[in-house]
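Hi D.,

Good news: the full-assembly prediction came through. Inputs first.
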Amino acid sequence: MDVYQITQQVIDPSALLQALEDPGAGAQVLFLGTVRNEFEGRASQGLFYDVYPQMAEAQIRKIGEELKEEFSVRHIVIVHRIGSLPVGTISVAVAVSAAHRDAAFAAARAGIDRVKERVPIWKKEHWADGSSAWHDDKS
Amino acid sequence: MDVYQITQQVIDPSALLQALEDPGAGAQVLFLGTVRNEFEGRASQGLFYDVYPQMAEAQIRKIGEELKEEFSVRHIVIVHRIGSLPVGTISVAVAVSAAHRDAAFAAARAGIDRVKERVPIWKKEHWADGSSAWHDDKS
Amino acid sequence: MSIMVLFFSFAADRMNARQKLYDLDGTMTVKEFFEKFLVKPLGDPFDAWLFSVNQEWVDGDALLHDGDEVAVVPPVSGG
Amino acid sequence: MSIMVLFFSFAADRMNARQKLYDLDGTMTVKEFFEKFLVKPLGDPFDAWLFSVNQEWVDGDALLHDGDEVAVVPPVSGG
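Then the structure:
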């Protein structure tokens, strides 16, 4: 089963791995992105994720379809969480099942790379000192 | 926390992901190997895994130490299950947390490759027709 | 013709709006629209932004049509 | 001197044993030991097998010592 989702709920890796199950699959690769306690050396207490919801869902579905065409994979899960997330929280998951591990690793890697390039989601860092700033805002 | 284990028990991915948790980690990559329903086109009902136990544990620990030296990773989990496993069962898990995804993907991939090359574990295929045979036995 | 323009992240902050309706005299490209209406309030030049029309990424020479949903946003930074 | 030799997978099947104690007249290499005691019952030549001594992989010119734990096994196939 494929899953493409933008969500405000907790991401549960077990549920995602269940979606991948397939008796013909020998390899599952799961990537989890989590909120870090620092960015470029500055302490952080978490992130706020802004999203363009309908476009983001359309984009992750499109990325999934590309991966299915380009790699020998069985099932694909791409889920991105939005809202305010404290350090340690899972913000994004990309998971793939395939007969063999070459395809599973390649597709999972391409999946997260494309999510980060093309899905309309923006991060605002909540710095440990109480201030906050959008990523890439040079003003 | 690092985990290196040869086990006869069910492998629980959630527990492995918990072991990886680290506020400085932004990337987790989990590889799961599962028992497939066919091998080289022939239907199978499962695998029996034989093991040289003490050496296998020593080897996975050594692989973990190599990965820590070679890649910028935080925590490593390598667990291999042995015994008779039906189709769909998780037989091996390699999981890595790191600040960034480049290191997490590279270390997880190197980890499973080295497990398959060097850990003294052998597979006997239980074919769907009731016969069985060790992998690599050309006799 | 009119188009609905959406803003996110610091584009929304700078516009003081998440969305705005614009009435255009006639058809124009995304870049022409940006230069006429947005470069001033957004403060950064054309190359600093990404654009979508009806939820597909486009470049500056995409033509706008009546009823289009346009987003003018910073580079994405999800993950 | 004596060494304990372990067999796994189809090496165990062919030996009808998971382990066997061998008494050696004197020191010898892994390859010499294999050719003298194991090539016949195992049926495949030296290059078809892997060898460990005291749980480290070794090649054929590793020297055997009294009390060593040796494994003679097929290529590994885990995962």
